[in-house]
Amino acid sequence: MKAVVFDVGNVLYGWDIRALYAKLIDDPARLDWFCREVVTPEWHFQHDEGRPFADTSAELIARFPQEADLIRQFGPRFNETITGEIPGMAAIIAGLAARGVPLFAITNFSAEFWPAFRATARLIDPMRDVIVSGAERLVKPDPAIYRLALQRFRLAPGEALFVDDRADNIAAGEAHGFAGHLFGGADALAARLAALGLMDQ
């Protein structure tokens, strides 16, 4: 075990659509409805698959024309859905980097939204490479994205720990060459990394 591969959303950085729309919709009941029925994670995941916001927003506006102005805000203000660094992760990244542990990431993320986010994301700085699903048109847990990661990161099966907050992504990673860690917070991850000899306790 010599490297660590991170998910980004809800492992390194919090992500919540509601964080944006709570600034734009005052009524709590209407906010609940909007985030449940209009701009939803399921709708957004199309961007992670590589679909452009111009297309997805036009389709959504056709379904909810009265919400057009709010829907149009999503693309240009996507960074406001990022709720900040996950507590404790900056220290883990810094500790691994200081020991020279090779760090990588596989993220389900829009290629269109990635550059503006990346410019703000200091925890990505030590990463040697990042696979962005929208750019590859491959999303976790597709086995192909894990095969691509091993190839791109020049890792042999069993050489890297894959950290993700979704059990289906972990299961797929474990089936395709990675040891897995289902993320539940920085403390448990630090303990696992120490047990693997990748970090000091």
What does this structure look like?
- The protein is α/β, with parallel strands linked by helices and 201 residues long.
- It has 2 domains: 3-14 and 84-195, 3-Layer(aba) Sandwich (Rossmann fold); 16-81.
- Helices cover 44% and strands 14% of the residues.
- The chain contains 11 helices and 7 strands.
- It has a 5-stranded parallel β-sheet with strand order 5-4-1-6-7, with helices on both faces. Strands 2-3 form a two-stranded antiparallel sheet.
- The radius of gyration is 18 Å and the shape is globular.
- It starts with a strand and ends in a 6-residue tail after the last helix.
- 34% of the residues are buried.
- The model has no long low-confidence stretch (mean pLDDT 97).
- CATH top level of the largest domain? Alpha Beta
Strand order of the largest sheet: 5-4-1-6-7
| Structural class based on helices, strands and sheet pairing | alpha/beta
Q: Fraction of residues in helices? A: 40-55%
Supply the number of structural domains: 2
Shape: globular
Gyration radius (Cα, Å) is 18 Å
- Tell me how many strands there are: 7
User: Which regions contain 5 or more consecutive residues with pLDDT less than 50?
Assistant: none
Please tag this protein with its features.
201 residues, 11 helices, 44% helix, Rossmann fold, 5-stranded parallel beta sheet, alpha/beta
SSE order and pairing:
Layout: E1 3-6, E2 13-15, H1 17-21, H2 28-37, H3 41-48, H4 53-63, H5 68-73, E3 82-85, H6 89-98, E4 103-107, H7 114-118, E5 129-132, H8 133-136, H9 143-153, E6 160-164, H10 167-175, E7 179-182, H11 186-195
Parallel strand pairs: 1-4, 1-6, 4-5, 6-7
Antiparallel strand pairs: 2-3
